[in-house]
Design brief:
Blueprint lengths: L1 E4 L11 E5 L2 E5 L5 E2 L1 E7 L6 E7 L16 E9 L2 E8 L4 E7 L10 E2 L8 E4 L5 E9 L2 E8 L12 E4 L8 E8 L2 E8 L7 E7 L7 E2 L6 E2 L9 E10 L5 E8 L12 E9 L5 E3 L8 E4 L26 E4 L7 E3 L6 E4 L12 E6 L5 E9 L7 E9 L2 E10 L2 E10 L2 E8 L7 E7 L3 E7 L6 E7 L16 E7 L3 E11 L1
Antiparallel strand pairs: 1-24, 2-3, 3-5, 4-25, 5-6, 7-8, 8-9, 9-10, 11-12, 12-13, 13-14, 15-16, 16-17, 17-18, 17-19, 20-21, 21-22, 22-23, 25-28, 26-27, 27-38, 28-37, 29-34, 29-38, 30-31, 30-37, 31-32, 32-33, 34-35, 35-36
Length: about 500
């Protein structure tokens, strides 16, 4: 027996999809309004994952202009066929369903090929006879189902009308379809119950990709909808893979609550072993609940894999692959020094409040208890100019800590923007020769903001509740909190060393 920990990808990594090629496993997640789009991971043991890039790295692939929070890119599916990789997804505001492809998994992906099929959560299925099927949600009067068509994989053209193939097991919003072939059966996996606390994974099967599909008698095959709130919640949206050893595993997402009915880290990727019962239906984790500390008979490969912080070779994005922009950035506002040790941000008139693309670069908060800090050098010349570090969930929910100009003098500003309310607290700037160190510490319930000339002489300046950056305290979001660096209203800020660590 071996032990492993869930989540395997902590922080905002929802809607996981997985495929296997030999001994290599590849996984993608939704990215919504953040750029680059669709983070891409590699593993050889299903537990340790390294990010090897993003699928959507060019504006021609991903138009995020005027996207509202949690719009953008939804529910990708990754598949491989005859040496070519495909990722299908939905751009919620600009084009609908599409897929892209590549012959080199660590290289560039094609521009989108659009598929004129409605719904969301598209998934490609390559049958053994060479036919290609495209499944997604299907809206009908009073409800939703899973619809499917056959397509030309070269052009995306529909070769058949879209047909309803399964109405689900009885839960609301059947979505996230994936199809597999095993032992002469076509298995159809889906998510139901909405992506909130009633989320679940269900399955059906039939002898043809068109059905008819019979529902698994033990549906849902995975859910935490009736568990105590100290457990993982909102378990759902899964994808199954086999291993070269003949085992089966599932990836899915879930949330960790900070307190009763509140979460702010986002939906996180988890995994569990799968076995098939005598009736030919999957049993996940031996029928037991998903826990932080898991056990399995074995992991694929040797169960060990190093971390790889590879960067984009062309220098377009010089930060590590965990970092994102909000929507499509204007790259002229981001400059990296020749040494690579300093990042210059040029603030524009777009602020973190505006719902557009401010000068911002951030990485996901992945732990409740964490400490993050950055060195900043900034001398704003106007009262509106502001630069520093932010805890950002949406343009209406963020805490910002940095340097501004007040009455012609440099000041520290702690700004908390929550819904239609904003508070600001101004403080004298600690004396320092060049850089000042900004620090944010967090636990489940609170963020604490401090600053000083160095790590040994820090002064506490204020706090903010995690509650007010939680999904349940805003219009429903599908994302999670980021730790970001920003500049606004003409501020020119030079950022030095950045650190993020679990506490």
């Amino acid at each position: 027996m071996v032990n492993f920990e869930n989540p395997v990808l902590p922080g905002f990594y929802p809607d996981p999809s997985i495929c296997r090629v030999g001994d290599d496993y590849y996984l993608v997640n939704s990215s919504f309004e953040f750029f680059p789009g669709i983070p891409l991971f590699h593993s050889r043991d299903l537990v340790h994952w390294e990010q090897i890039g993003h699928v959507l790295t060019r504006r021609s692939q991903i138009d995020l202009e005027d996207e509202n929070p949690s719009k953008g890119i939804w529910a990708p599916t990754i598949r491989e066929n005859k040496g070519r990789f495909y990722v299908s997804a939905t751009n919620m505001s600009h084009g609908g369903n599409f897929f892209v492809y590549t012959d080199e998994i660590r290289g560039e992906w094609s521009d989108p090929i659009w598929v004129r099929q409605g719904g969301i959560d598209p998934s490609l299925f390559f049958d053994e006879d060479g036919k290609v099927y495209f499944a997604s949600t299907y809206d009908m009067p009073g409800g939703q189902a899973i619809g499917q068509s056959m397509i030309d994989i070269m052009t995306g053209e529909l070769l058949t009308d879209t047909k309803i193939i399964w109405r689900g097991s009885g839960g609301k919003y059947p979505e996230g379809p994936h199809m597999y072939v095993k032992d002469g059966w076509y298995y159809l996996l889906a998510a139901e119950g909405g992506t909130e606390y009633g989320h679940m994974i269900t399955m059906a099967r039939g002898r043809s990709p068109w059905g008819p599909f019979e529902s698994c008698p033990d549906n849902p095959i995975l859910t935490h909808r009736d568990t105590m709130l100290d457990r993982f919640q909102a378990i759902g949206h899964g994808d199954i893979t086999d291993t070269s050893e003949g085992d089966w595993w599932i990836v899915f997402h879930g949330i960790r609550t900070s307190q009763y009915m509140l979460h702010h880290l986002g939906r996180e990727t988890m995994t569990a072993p799968v076995r098939w019962d005598q009736g030919g239906w999957p049993v996940i984790n031996g029928g037991k609940l998903i826990t932080p500390h898991m056990r399995a008979e074995r992991l694929p490969g040797d169960g060990r894999q190093g971390r790889d912080w590879r960067q984009y070779a062309d220098g377009k994005y010089t930060e590590r692959l965990k970092w994102n922009f909000i929507k499509n950035p204007e790259m002229s506002d981001y400059t990296v020094s020749e040494s690579g040790r300093e990042l210059l941000l040029h603030g524009t008139d777009v602020t973190l409040n505006d719902g557009k693309s401010p000068t911002f670069v951030g990485r996901r908060q992945q732990h409740f208890c964490m400490c993050t800090e950055v060195r900043i050098k900034c001398r704003p010349q106007t009262a509106d100019a502001f630069a520093g570090m932010t805890v950002y969930h949406t343009n209406e929910h963020h805490y910002d800590f940095g340097i501004t100009n007040h009455g012609g003098r440099l000041r520290l500003l702690l700004r908390k923007h929550v819904g239609d309310m904003e508070t600001t607290d101004m403080y004298s700037l600690p004396e320092c020769e060049t850089y000042i160190l900004l620090r944010i510490e967090a636990d489940r319930l609170e963020y604490r903001f401090s600053a000083g000339p160095d790590g040994e002489h820090m002064q506490y300046f204020g706090s903010g509740r995690t509650q007010l950056l939680s999904t349940e305290c805003m219009v429903m979001t599908f994302t999670g909190c980021y730790i970001g660096l920003f500049a606004e209203k003409g501020a020119e800020a030079v950022f030095g060393e950045f650190r993020y660590a679990e506490r």
